[in-house]
């Protein structure tokens, strides 16, 4: 079984890129299955279902979608195996730019929107910096110079990544991504994350709604950058 984790900022075109890539994989006689992870609601399972591939939806709700993805990686792989798939494509909402939901034995794909500006790659963090493949979308909306600057910023933070310019409407880049998936590593037991999750939860994470600082414990960071642990 091959595992492909596709993450990226909201609206970057992850689903559109995946739809074209699945078509390319099927034409090349692969058997993909898809798990779509979102926060509260999605109907993307209908779009994937039209391609005739096994599809399952996971809603993280009160849990960070990237953490939800990590926690459920093992059962997702087991489900894909039961469906007779040889590739599991896991699309995660990827809302936290500090998280990186990539295990060490997967193909890590970060989808990023070029129209968000040339400084965006500097702001994304391990979601981008630990990816094997960076898929730049919506490049047809900006100039060639802007695309080149964006590409250089991506390589500045992740010099070892493979950069693909993709188009979610035309399918540009999907064959290249499908080839990378075919040549990716097999999953193995005892996988580990490529990058540590955020340091710890705080009382805000666990439901505290009061704003005053005296009510909060955990790993906390001040405006001046000072970090402290407050609690038992």
TrEMBL record:
CobW/HypB/UreG nucleotide-binding domain boundaries: 4-164
Domain of life of the native organism: Archaea
Molecular function as annotated in GO: GTPase activity; nickel cation binding; zinc ion binding
Protein's UniProt name: CobW/HypB/UreG nucleotide-binding domain-containing protein
A Pfam short name: cobW
Gene3D superfamilies named among the record's database cross-references: P-loop containing nucleotide triphosphate hydrolases (3.40.50.300)
GO BP terms: protein maturation
SUPFAM superfamilies: P-loop containing nucleoside triphosphate hydrolases
